[in-house]
Amino acid sequence: MWSANGIDELTVGLLMSVIGGGLLLIAPYFILVCALAVGLTLKKVKARLIFPRTGYVVFRPAPSRIWIFVAFQGLAAAMSVGTVYWRSGWPDLSRAWGPGFGFVFAVILLWGGVAYRLPHFLWLAGLSLLLGAVTFAARAKIDGVLWVMAGVGVAMALDGALRMKRFLRTHPVLEGQHG
Amino acid sequence: MAELDRVIHEPARLSIVAILAAVQEADFLYLLKATELTKGNLSTHLAKLEEVGYVEIEKAFRGKIPLTLARLTPQGMAALKSYRKEMTALLKVPKRSRASLTRSLAAAPQKA
After folding, report:
1. What is the chain A residue with the closest CA to B31?
2. pTM of the model
């Protein structure tokens, strides 16, 4: 299975934690430096730990319809939020940012989990919903999005790290396999 | 019936070409794991595919480790598509023959 080594979850999780955490701390340079460090480190990890076990492979780019689906979800969420703000007579729904983002992200994870048969995405979807509800209860406003992003990111990175640990244990490096 | 491409028709080579059709490039180790062939077998089949121009082989080094990268050429991709089309046509049984085959099988005495 392509996700067996956990590197993709680790990458996305770390980047989400960095972006969410960096924006919460209002530290754009922190995001930039950390994102670059994450990218470079994981590239080295792939070259030194993953490829000697699995072999080197570059997959063809994913079909564009996946991104259409994701873009559609994002657009729908943005339009909903925009409408709420445009109609000034409506009640203050600023607390809906966290649960809204949590919901949209949960739908994406759920879809990914079902479409690509990745059951561990289902509990991440549940966590996204839960964190959204927590930010609502905690009366967080737009920073609720960042808390959800950072929380799901940390969970995803931990999941990826555990999967990678298991993968490294069960897949020893085979010497002299390059023909 | 069109003649099947014997180079691709061989199961091990079909497996290599099918894998390479799904990726941009892969190294020898990846192909070894994915096809479950032996090193010698894989080398021979890759050489044959390279000889007919279906696969492009690039020899490189990652540090001190030799790295053999394989890519499917446009010619190889076209050959795979053509092979798939021919096999699909070959396996397509006309509806009438299928119904008659089903009846024959149903009428045949069952073994205990």
Report:
1. A55
2. 0.65
Q: Where are the beta strands (DSSP E) in A62-112?
A: none
- The topology under which CATH files domain B6-107 is Arc Repressor Mutant, subunit A (1.10.10)
Quick check: A121 and A109 in contact, CB under 8 A? yes
Q: Which two tokens stand for residue B11?
A: 């199961």
Kindly list the domain boundaries of chain A, sorted by start residue.
7-170
Give per-residue pLDDT as tens, A129-150. Answer: 999 999 988 888 888 888 999 9
What CA–CA distance (Å, rounded) separates B20 from B23?
5
What CA–CA distance (Å, rounded) separates B14 from A11?
34
- Shortest distance, CA B71 to any CA of chain A (angstroms): 10
B57-72 pLDDT tens trace? 998 877 777 788 999 9
Inspect the interface and report whether the beta carbons of A178 and B67 lie closer than 8 Å: yes
Side chain identity at residue A90, one-letter code: W
Nearest residue to B28 (alpha-carbon basis) of A177, A52, A174: A177
Whether residue A179 and residue B39 make contact (CB cut-off 8 A), yes or no, is yes
Confidence grade of residue A95 (pLDDT, cut at 50, 70, 90): confident
As for the ipTM of the complex, it is 0.71
Contacts of B31 in chain A (CB under 8 A): 55
Residue A113 backbone phi and psi in degrees, to 5: -65, -40
Q: Which residues contact A162 (CB under 8 A, 6 or more apart)?
A: A6
Q: How many other C-beta atoms can be found within 10 angstroms of the C-beta atom of residue A109? A: 23
B2's CB contacts (< 8 A; 6+ apart) are B86
Q: Are B29 and A174 within 8 A, CB to CB?
A: yes
List CB contacts (< 8 A) between A56 and chain B. 25-27, 29-30, 67, 69
